């Protein structure tokens, strides 16, 4: 049995979060009617000239900084020449020779719980192609996507397992979202992943033939495709055969990789400098101005939540998985120091509601102000946690003050000790036999009187205060 080492490199195409396309004024949209947002530049009309999207360059700079890349202050573009139906111009504007960023890294936690630095070779700016929709009768083309600004992020071939790839993609996606470089939604194609994978016997320095895995639309599928491909290539090598250099896709139904095309010699794209865009010198002052706008990165937020807010690691991970949830939480903790209670409702009842209704947090009426106001009503014993569930359901659908909801629905909790005493004391007087059992069965006696109190108040008594009153009455009655 021969042991093989897995060699993996990742290429990610990331759609930039701009309003217009990278080299034209065409609008960036998702889900619009096919071919309704096509610009003459992106459709390859003769005589049109590209103009570089300044916002796209800014976002690329932020990505470089977040991924620890060395920034090239001279922006230069090249033409990648090839004909394909999804490329109307017959060429793609890209950065083949002078990427905006080189030699960076992203740190992940490996299978052994140890930090692992993944080296990033380059990050370059380019434009997207049209979207292809393959049907039984042929292939349809939607040119709405053509020309959207992309950054391509390429790692060195240093990942060694499907687990490491998943951790890398999760960390990369988190950074892209938190820097607002991209919404990084794999299901919508704004974060795409190509995996290059090969195997070699342990101790051998030369690489084996690599297989490229394409069209992977989720991190889960990336992991499954790699695991299958490692198994497939291992079986081929153990039989003394050679792994063919080819491109494969992942079939979700069979959970296998399927041949798309064989690879022979490398394609000659006849790169040359883009003649319609002269090199652009970025001033150090402007670069600094852009980078000074860098939002707080996920790693820093995680550390702040763990050390300053003393939140549980598992809760922090859940909060940071959803950018909208995190921004909501940030707004809420500016209004209240009840950090754990805010987290409890956000990852509990609120998330359950979002999943049940299949909506996002932004599609609800919930505001940080109303959530904090509801929590304050609980803290002040105005309402119970049970009553809070009723209030929460209301403020999720209406921007309505929680205090007003309590009044409207008659939910106010009985929390005045004198009022509670007046309600429960007659029960003591009519149940002296039960009271006499206290020394032998204290829990049963307290539970009985608390149950009676809840019945009389229809569950609207503050439990903690109610129990204090019941215990005080037991003591007082026993001493008589």
Automatic annotation (TrEMBL):
| Pfam families for the chain | GatB_N, GatB_Yqey
GO MF annotations in UniProt: asparaginyl-tRNA synthase (glutamine-hydrolyzing) activity; ATP binding; glutaminyl-tRNA synthase (glutamine-hydrolyzing) activity; transferase activity
The catalytic activity of this protein is classed by the Enzyme Commission as 6.3.5.-
A single Gene Ontology biological process assigned to it is: translation
What does this protein do, in the record's words? Allows the formation of correctly charged Asn-tRNA(Asn) or Gln-tRNA(Gln) through the transamidation of misacylated Asp-tRNA(Asn) or Glu-tRNA(Gln) in organisms which lack either or both of asparaginyl-tRNA or glutaminyl-tRNA synthetases. The reaction takes place in the presence of glutamine and ATP through an activated phospho-Asp-tRNA(Asn) or phospho-Glu-tRNA(Gln).
Q: Which PANTHER family match?
A: GLUTAMYL-TRNA GLN AMIDOTRANSFERASE SUBUNIT B MITOCHONDRIAL AND PROKARYOTIC PET112-RELATED, GLUTAMYL-TRNA(GLN) AMIDOTRANSFERASE SUBUNIT B, MITOCHONDRIAL
Subunit comment: Heterotrimer of A, B and C subunits.
> What is this protein's record name?
Aspartyl/glutamyl-tRNA(Asn/Gln) amidotransferase subunit B
What gene does the UniProt entry assign to this protein? gatB_1
